[in-house]
C-alpha cells in the first residue's frame, strides 16, 4: 500500500458513513440484506435514499463497485430533487460512501475529490471536524444503519436515535426507528413490563400523534398492546391499518403476525400470501407462513379423538418447505433452522433434527442470543425426545451461562429450576440450584464493581 493510500485511508476512517458504521463483513448476511433493500426500493417504500446508500455499501463489499456508484448517484439525485433546501445536511453520508467506493476501486484522486466536497460542507457547521459534522441527520441515518445490521448493534442504534431526537424531537422517521429498536430490545430482554411503563409503546403512540395515518406504526403498536392484553385497542388498530394500507407488505407482514398470535391462522395465511406476491424472496414472510403451519400442527396434535394423518403429513411438509425456503434465502436465519428441527422432532425425524442441532452448536460467529436459543432448543430436544435428563441439563446450563439478558436465557433458567424441583432432592437438583445462585452472585458482584468504578471515575475528574 502506497504512502498516499495510507494517508487517504486514515482520513476515510474519520468519516461518518456505512463503511465506518457497519460491523465486520463476516457478521452481515449480505445476500439477505441486499434482498431486503431491493424489496424496499422495488416497492417504492419511503426514504429511498437510505436504501440506495446501504445497497451501495453491500454492492461494494461484494466487489460490485460500478453498481455501488450507480446506487449512490441515484441517492444523490433523489436528494437534489426532494430536499434541495437541506441538501448539504443530507448528502454527508452519501459523499462519505462515494469516497470509500472510489478508494476500493483504486481511484484515489476521485476519492479525495469527495473528501474535498465534505470539507466544504462541514465548514458550515460550527462543531464539525474537517470531514464530519455530527448533526441530527447523521445520527438518525447511523441509527437506521445499525438497526438494520443486526442485534449486536441495537443498543448503539438506540443511542443514535436518542441523540438525533434531542435536537429534533418531532422527526417521525427517527421516532419510528427509536420505537422499533426499543420494541426489539424489550422483546430480547424477556422482561414483561406494564403497558404504562413500556418505552416502545410510548414512542409508537408518539408517532401516531404526529402522523395519525402511519399504518405501520398502527400494527407495531397493536403487537405490543397484545402482549399487554389490550386486545380491543390492538384489534381496532390492525383493522384501521389494513384499511389505510392494504397493499403495503410491511403492514401485511406485521398484521399477519398479529393474527397468528391471536390464533386466527387462516387470516394470517391469507395476508402472508398477499404479501408474498409482492415480495416472493422475503425470508421473513416464508418463516411467518411456516410458523402458521406449525401452530396448526400443534392444535391438531392436541385434538382429542382420531386425527387425520394425511392432513398432519401435509401440514408438516408445508411447514418444513416454508422454513427451508426461509433459511435458503437467508442462511444466517437461525430461528428458521431451529423451527425446522423442531418440526422434524414432532414428526419423529430425530436423526435429521439432531444433525441440524449439531451443526448449529458448532457456530461461533453468531450473536449471544442465537447461542442461547440454540442451547435452549437442544436442551428441550434432549429432555422431551431423547429422554436424556443429563444432556438436557448440560445444554440448558450452557445457555444460561452465556451472560446476555434475553428471553432465551430466562427460559433456560426456568427449565433448569423445574428440573431442580425434585421431590427427592437429589445431588443433581442441589448442583443446579448452586450453579444458578453462583452465577447470580457473580453478576451481582460485577454490577457492584461497575457502579463503584463509575464513582471512582467521577471522583477523579
Task: Please specify the SSE layout and strand pairing.
Blueprint: H1 3-12, H2 18-21, H3 30-42, H4 48-61, H5 65-82, H6 87-105, H7 108-122, H8 136-147, H9 154-167, H10 172-189, H11 199-210, H12 215-227, H13 231-244, H14 249-261, H15 265-278, H16 283-302, H17 309-329, H18 334-346, H19 350-361, H20 368-384, H21 389-401, H22 407-420, H23 427-460
Give the biggest sheet: none
Just name the CATH architecture of the domain at 3-134: Alpha Horseshoe
Total number of β-strand segments? 0
Number of helices: 23
CATH topology grouping of the domain at 3-134: Serine Threonine Protein Phosphatase 5, Tetratricopeptide repeat
**Gyration radius from CA atoms, angstroms:** 25 Å
CATH class of the domain at 3-134, please?
Mainly Alpha
Specify the overall morphology.
Answer: globular
For CATH, the homologous superfamily of the domain at 3-134 is named as Tetratricopeptide repeat domain
Strand content: under 5%
Task: State the distance separating the first and last CA atoms.
Answer: 42 Å
Give the % helix: over 70%
* Succession of helices and strands: HHHHHHHHHHHHHHHHHHHHHHH
Low-confidence parts, pLDDT < 50 over ≥5 residues? 455-461
Amino acid at each position: 500500500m502506497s504512502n498516499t493510500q495510507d494517508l487517504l485511508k486514515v482520513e476515510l476512517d474519520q468519516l461518518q458513513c456505512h463503511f465506518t458504521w457497519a460491523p465486520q463483513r463476516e457478521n452481515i448476511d449480505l445476500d439477505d440484506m441486499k434482498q431486503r433493500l431491493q424489496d424496499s426500493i422495488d416497492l417504492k417504500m419511503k426514504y429511498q435514499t437510505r436504501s440506495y446508500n446501504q445497497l451501495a455499501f453491500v454492492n461494494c463489499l461484494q466487489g460490485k463497485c460500478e453498481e455501488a456508484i450507480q446506487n449512490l448517484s441515484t441517492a444523490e439525485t433523489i436528494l437534489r430533487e426532494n430536499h434541495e433546501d437541506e441538501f448539504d445536511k443530507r448528502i454527508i453520508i452519501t459523499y462519505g460512501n462515494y469516497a470509500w467506493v472510489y478508494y476500493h476501486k483504486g481511484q484515489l484522486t476521485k476519492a479525495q475529490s469527495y473528501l474535498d466536497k465534505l470539507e466544504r460542507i462541514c465548514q458550515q457547521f460550527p462543531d464539525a471536524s474537517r470531514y464530519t459534522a455530527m448533526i441530527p441527520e447523521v445520527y438518525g441515518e447511523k441509527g437506521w444503519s445499525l438497526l438494520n445490521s443486526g442485534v449486536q448493534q441495537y443498543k448503539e442504534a438506540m443511542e443514535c436515535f436518542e441523540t438525533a431526537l434531542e435536537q429534533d424531537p418531532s422527526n417521525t422517521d427517527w421516532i419510528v426507528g427509536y420505537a422499533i429498536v426499543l420494541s426489539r430490545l424489550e422483546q430480547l430482554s424477556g422482561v414483561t413490563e406494564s403497558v404504562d411503563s413500556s418505552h416502545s409503546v410510548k414512542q409508537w403512540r408518539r408517532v401516531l400523534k404526529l402522523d395519525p395515518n402511519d399504518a405501520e406504526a398502527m400494527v407495531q403498536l397493536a403487537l405490543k398492546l397484545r402482549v399487554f392484553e389490550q386486545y380491543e385497542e390492538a384489534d381496532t388498530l390492525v383493522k384501521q391499518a389494513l384499511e389505510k394500507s392494504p397493499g403495503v407488505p410491511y403492514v401485511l407482514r406485521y398484521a399477519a403476525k398479529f393474527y397468528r398470535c391471536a390464533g386466527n391462522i387462516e387470516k394470517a395465511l391469507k395476508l402472508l400470501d398477499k404479501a408474498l406476491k409482492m415480495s416472493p424472496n422475503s425470508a421473513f414472510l416464508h418463516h411467518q407462513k411456516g410458523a402458521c403451519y406449525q401452530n396448526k400442527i400443534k392444535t391438531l396434535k392436541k385434538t382429542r379423538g382420531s386425527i387425520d394423518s394425511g392432513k398432519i403429513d401435509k401440514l408438516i411438509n408445508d411447514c418444513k418447505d416454508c422454513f427451508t425456503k426461509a433459511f435458503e434465502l437467508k442462511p444466517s436465519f437461525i430461528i428458521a433452522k431451529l423451527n425446522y428441527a423442531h418440526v422434524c422432532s414432532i414428526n419423529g425425524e430425530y436423526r435429521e433434527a439432531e444433525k441440524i442441532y449439531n451443526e448449529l452448536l458448532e457456530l461461533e460467529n453468531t450473536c449471544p442470543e442465537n447461542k442461547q436459543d440454540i442451547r435452549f432448543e437442544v436442551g428441550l430436544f434432549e429432555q422431551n425426545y431423547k429422554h436424556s435428563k443429563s444432556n438436557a441439563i448440560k445444554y440448558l446450563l450452557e445457555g444460561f451461562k452465556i451472560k446476555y439478558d434475553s428471553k432465551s436465557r430466562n427460559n433456560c433458567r426456568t427449565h433448569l429450576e423445574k428440573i431442580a424441583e425434585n421431590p427427592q432432592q437429589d445431588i443433581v437438583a442441589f448442583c443446579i440450584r448452586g450453579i444458578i445462585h453462583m452465577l447470580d452472585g457473580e453478576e451481582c458482584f460485577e454490577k457492584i464493581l461497575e457502579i463503584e468504578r463509575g464513582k471512582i471515575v467521577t471522583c477523579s475528574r
